[in-house]
Design a protein that fits this description.
Blueprint (H helix, E strand, L loop, with lengths): L2 E9 L2 E9 L4 E5 L6 H9 L6 E6 L2 E5 L4 E2 L7 E4 L11 H11 L4 H14 L15 H14 L4 E5 L7 H16 L4 E5 L3 H7 L2 E6 L2 E7 H6 L4 H7 L2 E14 L2 E17 L5 E3 L9 E13 L2 E8 L3 E5 L1 H7 L6 E6 L4 E5 L1
Helix pairs in contact: 2-3, 2-4, 3-4, 4-5
């Protein structure tokens, strides 16, 4: 049961034009900034919004094709949907919420309840069968919403920011639980998220959506190793530049960046923030790249301090809190940044 979709929609000034293909058992994460059209894609696949052009095919079934005037409504699609706010029915018990899926496909009440109870037992939620949604914690609500979506045995599972409403501790626990469920799911799962950790932990493939179009797609390893837009670079936490190369010199704007390998033509360059060394005065260093900069912002990220620098290049550097304190750095301070040529990765545009 494969997914073959080409979603074309006009959303105000945003023209959404996205092709998605996935095989059985695949988990594909869709990431992108707000307003890129991520949730709209899921709504189109679920049948909550018809495409203006293109098609949606799941296996040998055509679910949406304006050219042939084909449109299958949501209840006719074997698609499960876990919404950002979970959207459990407040007047139904947990058991009745989970039984809703099979009931909607014509299963008898008794068999639907038995199937729902089995789903709850598998999820470790059997003791909550009689509870109402208002009695659940955020993590419990998310797990019930997932059990409800899976109870209908969908061929396609859509997850729209399912962890975003949870606190940090609950999110980590629920992410592990979700990973376990996805490992045992034979259908196709599409996950919309803003969190790169969700993609890293839950998905094998990533699709980056910006301004209604796909700007990068591939495995998690491919996308993180070779970001191609500033959004993706920010997402994976690296510095990204575009320049014209000739040998070991790459011209980025009006700044020459020295790299270790000989390259030619237009290339991307990435510099990991941890590869940037900070000095309070001009250093005597073996590094082939040395630039004067000014600190414009400082962020504390766990055991690292992230410095945002402006100068010939806009750089992000990461140092330890001990180094930050020893150098007595402040916003507005002038510093020197050095990067070894061997620490810079290059790849064709």
């Amino acid at each position: 049961m494969t997914l073959d979709a080409h979603v074309r929609l006009q959303l105000g000034t945003l023209a959404l034009d996205v092709a998605i293909g996935a095989r059985p058992g695949a988990v594909v994460a869709i990431l992108g900034p707000n307003g890129a059209g991520k949730s709209t894609i899921l709504r189109a696949l679920a049948g909550l919004r018809a495409v203006d052009a293109g098609h949606v095919r799941l296996g040998d079934r055509v679910l949406d094709d304006p050219a042939s005037r084909t449109f299958v409504p949501p209840e006719g699609r074997r698609v499960g949907f876990v919404h950002q706010d979970h959207l459990l029915f407040p007047h139904l018990s947990v058991l009745e919420n989970v039984a809703f899926g099979p009931r909607s496909t014509g299963t008898s009440r008794g068999r639907a309840r038995a199937h729902a109870l089995a789903r709850l037992e598998a999820a470790g939620l059997a003791e909550l069968a009689g509870a109402r949604p208002r009695e659940l914690s955020g993590g419990q609500s998310q797990r019930v919403a997932l059990a409800r979506a899976l109870a209908a045995d969908p061929d396609l599972l859509l997850l729209d920011e399912p962890l975003s409403a949870l606190d940090v501790t609950t999110r980590a626990t629920t992410r592990r639980d979700l990973r376990r469920h996805l490992d045992g799911y034979a259908g196709i799962a599409l996950l919309v998220t803003h969190d790169p950790l969700d993609a890293l932990m839950l998905a094998e493939e990533v699709l980056i959506l910006e301004r209604g179009t796909v700007t990068q797609a591939g495995t998690v390893a491919e996308v993180t190793a070779r970001p191609r837009t500033p959004y993706v670079a920010d997402l994976v936490g690296t510095n990204l530049y575009r320049g014209a190369a000739d040998g070991t010199a790459v011209l980025v704007g009006d700044t020459v960046v020295e790299v270790a390998d000989r390259v030619s033509g237009w290339v991307h360059l990435t510099i990991a923030p941890s590869s940037v060394t900070i000095h309070p005065s001009e250093p005597v260093s073996s590094a082939r790249n040395t630039w004067p900069c000014t600190i414009t912002a400082v962020d504390l990220l766990g055991e690292r301090v992230r410095l945002h620098l402006t100068g010939r290049l806009h750089l992000v550097a990461e140092i330890t809190p001990a180094s930050f304190a020893r150098l007595a750095l402040r916003i507005g301070d002038p510093v020197w940044a050095t990067v070894k040529a061997t620490e810079i990765a290059t790849y064709p545009i």
